[in-house]
């Protein structure tokens, strides 16, 4: 639950609420790596809150999951329309985790979930440029469409970073492409394909950073291995996109 930072700092015993305001104004408090603002709210369970560089809370064991999200599930923990959510698939994991990023209702594949606010911020912040690779089944003129997908392209008037696009194979009258991006605009790959004159029949995320979906089955989840977690924490520094 989000609360004002002054209240969180005071409740933690670090400083009084009035003293907390002075700490924030002096730039001594950060939330997810950036200087906090007076009046800002945060979630002490989810966000990485630090005072003078020290975590507000003692380090705890965190949970890091990989889920193969099937089509027909929304990437939320609850849904006002009564649709099936990814929370239905991870019951019994033993922790209050949340999705890192999104996959739309009609898309499938790799979805990371965690209760680590700092890692969530790192993976989602555009400056880290974490790669996301999708396998996309399309119909249409692929020879014409692939150069368009490779850019330059714009969505909503904003230029996109060039995508890496490879033809993989033909399958039952459809072309299967590998599309790698590091941005996360709403339905980005589908909209890029539409601009290229291609109709998406199926879309599956197979990689995020160095973490691969592998042979995980739809609807199943597992914990990340230590090496996978280390790769995610390294971020995009040693990746190309």
TrEMBL record:
SMART domains: S4
Stored CDD domains: PseudoU_synth_RsuA_like, S4
Pfam family, one: S4
Entry keyword annotation includes Manganese: no
EC annotation from Swiss-Prot or TrEMBL: 5.4.99.-
Isomerase keyword on record: yes
Keywords assigned: Isomerase, RNA-binding
Domain RNA-binding S4: 3-63
Recorded family membership: Belongs to the pseudouridine synthase RsuA family.
NCBIfam families, A to Z: pseudouridine synthase (TIGR00093)
Protein name per Swiss-Prot or TrEMBL: Pseudouridine synthase
Organism whose genome encodes this protein: Pseudoflavonifractor hominis
